[in-house]
Amino acid sequence: MLRLTSSRLGSLLAGRPTAALTFSIKGRAASQQSHEVSEPVDMSRPMYYDRVDMPLPDKPYKDVLSEAEQKLKQKEKGPWSQLTNEEKVALYRLKFCQSYSEMRAPSAEWKTVLGGMLFFIGFTGLVVWWQRIYVYPPSPRTLDGDWKAMQLQRMLDMRINPVEGLSAKWDYDKGQWK
Amino acid sequence: MSLQKPIMRGLLAKRLRFHLPIAFGIAITVALSYKFGVTEPRKKAYANFYKQYDAVKEFNAMREAGVFESVRPSGK
């Protein structure tokens, strides 16, 4: 069976940006066989991509074929019943980088995302706590307990919301909440 | 390995046949439960409140509490 080379291995190790709808840069890696410093991709020419919503890329995954691969492509021109199963799979892998199930395969990225979110939310909590102690000015006097009690008494005196709201819940005869 | 030909037409109609009754049902249910859970009780609460509402008594109570500026509490 024809095995794909380090470009496939590179895609397995790449991991992170392989959500279903991101463009794959594996096309570039394939033609330059895992050379780290690569020159920019010519976007004016047809590119290969793995996309769930666009099934047929503009060009096959591998266009530089080795000797054995070229012989296989020649054999592909004949009747397909003469191809073995391994050859059919090899031809598929020449044309496509990832199958649909591979594209859709879930990753563990959500754990990192969730963990990062919670970590930063927690850190923000610590920052807010520090601010509460060292940054906030003194509370206005209208938030003192006494003031709020006087405010509530005045609201009851004025019969605020007597039908369904505040004063409706106060028993005026007994002087307590209903 | 011959697969069945997939359904090519009428996909939106099929989806609507299923989802529209559900959507209308939920919308009507929400509207009715709001009407009978919120507005009707509220109308009854207001009706009941004003059945036994003595405006003068309430006014005097508020006046004694001292919330008005036009009339002071009666007495000193």
From TrEMBL, chain A:
Q: Do you know which InterPro entries this protein is assigned to?
A: Cyt_c_oxidase_su4, Cyt_c_oxidase_su4_fam, Cyt_c_oxidase_su4_sf
- Residues that span the membrane, as ranges: 112-130
Which pathway does the UniProt entry assign to this protein?
Energy metabolism; oxidative phosphorylation
Q: Which Gene3D superfamilies match?
A: Cytochrome c oxidase subunit IV (1.10.442.10)
Q: Name one GO cellular component term.
A: respiratory chain complex IV
**Localisation per UniProt entry:** Mitochondrion inner membrane
The membrane topology term of the UniProt record is: Single-pass membrane protein
> What are the entry keywords?
Membrane, Mitochondrion, Mitochondrion inner membrane, Transmembrane, Transmembrane helix
Any single biological process term in GO: mitochondrial electron transport, cytochrome c to oxygen
Q: What does this protein do?
A: Component of the cytochrome c oxidase, the last enzyme in the mitochondrial electron transport chain which drives oxidative phosphorylation.
Q: Which family does it belong to?
A: Belongs to the cytochrome c oxidase IV family.
Indicate the quaternary assembly: Component of the cytochrome c oxidase (complex IV, CIV), a multisubunit enzyme composed of 14 subunits. The complex is composed of a catalytic core of 3 subunits MT-CO1, MT-CO2 and MT-CO3, encoded in the mitochondrial DNA, and 11 supernumerary subunits COX4I, COX5A, COX5B, COX6A, COX6B, COX6C, COX7A, COX7B, COX7C, COX8 and NDUFA4, which are encoded in the nuclear genome.
State the protein's name.
Cytochrome c oxidase subunit 4
**What species does this protein belong to?**
Poecilia mexicana
